[in-house]
Amino acid sequence: MKPYHLAAICLALVTATHTAGTGADTKQWTATPAPAGKSTPGPDDRTSFDLEGDPGTVFQDKLSVVNTGDTARSLDVRADGSWITLAARTVKIPARTRADVPFAVAVPADAAPGAHPGALVVSGEGRQVRVPLAVRVAGAALPALAVEHVRVSREGGGAVIRYALVNRGNTALAPRLDIRADGLFGTVLRRTATGVPARLAPGRSVRLAERWADAPRLDSVRVRLTATAPGGARATASGSYTPLPWLFPALGGLAAVLAAAVLLLVRRSRRARSAGAAA
Description:
The protein contains 1 helix and 17 strands. The chain is mainly beta.
């Protein structure tokens, strides 16, 4: 995204008309969205920035930092989100004064529809205040998930199920992944995977591993992974697991040898009966 240049980068200092309270306030400064024309934010003002528009939209707003103390202070301001451009990264506020920090949010032309969270963070004097900012981009949301690169391997006394979870859609997802393993004698594993991210951004892929401590040692297992997310996204993938890969071919070979031996004995028995009958 090309950096957005504010038409007017300024820091508006507005003298606050505070009346000292009866008790001492340990919070000597506050940070909130700019109030509607008042010297200090009130109970009816915004507590977060909620913006909504089409891809390519540029929003402009202000963050208010109020110094409620009797001494001037300098605070740091940063943006948690790549679309946000701040007019200043440091704000110096005289005693009992409000400083408004302008900022812009430039939504890329190819931004995916849906909610995109962020924040403005003010810090100083051992404190940090995070003011949430959310941009909802208009458009049809297309949720899509994929489970890829499933591999089950023996490790230690158990096994590890490795896989990749991919957001193939255009909106952020909150995925859930269920694991089921079926062997020759029934289901041997059924549980919800741990470590799955609470939010998976569009186009993002994460590689995950699920430990299976009590994996069978003498069974051939089919492991099936099913990923779901609110909005209808669903995907499945599977992988096989045989802890002793030589065991089943060896058993198959032994069975073939035994079958051949039985067949040979049957033929000899028939020949012997035929010879006896002829005599």
